[in-house]
Amino acid sequence: MNNNSGELPIALRWLTGVAALGSAFLAMDSLRMFSESPLLDFAITVQNHYYYALMGLLLPLCFLLYPSFRSPKSYWLDGALSLSAFAACGFFFYNAETMLDYGWEFLAPSYAVWVSYLLWVLIMEAVRRCGGWILFFLVLTFSVYPIVAEKLPGPISGMSSTLAETASYHVMSIESILGLPFRAFAQLVIGFLIFGIALQHTGGGRFFINLAFALFGHVRGGSAKVAIVSSGLMGSMSGSVITNVLTTGQMTIPAMRKNGFEKEYAAGVEACASTGGVLLPPIMGSTAFVMATFLNVPYSTVALAAAIPALLYFFGLFVQVDAYAARKGLVGTPRDELPKLGETMKQGWFYIVAFVVLIFLLLYLQREAVAPFFATGMLLVLNQLSTSHRWNLKEMGSFLVATGKLLMELLTIMAGVGLIVGALSVSGLSGTLVNDLLYIAGDSTLLLLLMGAFTSFFLGIGMTVTAAYVFLAIILAPALIQGGLDPMSVHLFILYWGMLSFITPPVALGAFAAASIAGASALSTGFKAMRLGSVIYFIPFFFVLEPALILSGTWWETLFATVKVVVGIVLIAGTLQHYLLGVGLLDRTGPHGIAGRLFIAIGGGLIALPTTEVIGINVGDATLIISGGVLAVTGVLLSRGSADESPMPSEASV
User: Fold this and answer.
1) In a domain, 309, yes or no
2) Which helix (H) or strand (E) holds 91?
3) What domain range is 562 assigned to?
4) Residue 359 and residue 368: Cα distance in Å, rounded?
5) Is 259 helix (H, G, I), strand (E, B) or coil?
6) Per-residue pLDDT tens digits for 272-304
7) Which residues pair with 579 in a beta bridge?
8) Distance (Å, rounded) from C-alpha 93 to C-alpha 89?
């Protein structure tokens, strides 16, 4: 929907800012950051009090920030819906303790059931406005499923509930609207969202771009490498592929075009980098914290496990960009036109300090719940001490408004996805789906993985990354885990495949957004992005079959597996760009050239391929590496042109 473009009315800005402050205060108070006992101990005696209070602050904003119609005559309807949402949440806040004491989720008084109907409908409408029609219909279908579950055939049959029982369970239990996605948002994610917004509004985006230019701008294809670094870092903060493309892309895409990159290629680089940011620690767009909640492990465990696969993906982007620039003869930007590293660090050193504090608290002290609040506080204090970045009242207000809007959007989506969780829980369908997938796959782990990849990709279309991950973690992950795969690798696998729709045609929302900035063909940009990000289609299979890539092995196993994949990436990227790092152009035409490049790609795949015992093929690592090496060398000899046509690289590369 997102039809709230333009400046908001002053009253609505104040309301959104107050909701943001109130939500931050509630979150910090629930974490005992102000005192050993909550300051609101007189009002919040059970955790449900906090959840309904948070919902009461944020949910009503949806109907005001995303109005149904553009006509001012419709404002009364949105105002009425907003007040109804506040009143319904207030009702459940007031009765939260009674609900737990008397088990209202199973047997509620009639008046509570009617209020449950109201909140259910309001959340569905909020999902439609914030999440779009695809997510709305998905949530609607699942949320009403328990009512008709017994009447449905075969594998989609389940235990039925009445309409009243379903509404009560959805709204008053801790397994549906207030289920795991919502609780992860309320207990962990809020602080990181605030930190990401503070980073953007204090100029963090510009700092990271300048820092990347200072480090990489002078090498060949430097502007594209700058886009990879800066968009990857900001994507990790924001968690939204589209938002990141539309913000950092405004600066990186014109820079790449000026540096000689084709417009479709420049847009594809930005789309791939912004998409990859969701996979990049330390924040991973807040999805990592939901994953940690699902797996019941510390956040640091998820971040460390995700590090090597994410770095391999970005390495693949770097190698492809470098090869493209070498083949096209694109040189870097002269150093005198680039920001100076020392000056850049002098102007933005406090961003680095805030990051160091965040990572220290996350990984060393393992205080993931409070870490972002301390880091945000330090960032804001240092920002106000800086004469060049200091906020005035208007800029402070913009920060609060942006915070309120983002918190509202994610709360709404998590509440909507929670309806899916609740429906599967009360009907028992999740267990049925798991058994059906295992039955279809039989004893074939490879078939189960391929089914999982296709299902993740399909269900990820049109959904936000976090919503897609949560949905897949409920529907698909249990089947893969019961199939004998490592739980951490399974959850990372579905995260990777769930967000691939952002760069894969025909949907490719991230690529299409980048194309709109570059003035390029949307479909052509999608295929460019798909080619650039090709490594990402294989990496999930690699770390599922080789858990050492997610640090589930000895240091030697991890190092060996990583080096193999790095070599494979270099060979595959060289094939795709017709230029192999350290060798030169692979530009021979005709059957020999085509066959040679194919041999190199297959050789790279064999070298990178992890142990095959998991999929029932007993081929040793030595056999794979030797076979791949022979194929790659043969391919290079076949696909190389004449010496005059294939100059060796002479300028700084990756």
Assistant:
1) no
2) helix 75-94
3) 553-654
4) 9
5) coil
6) 999 888 888 877 877 888 888 889 888 888 989
7) 585
8) 6
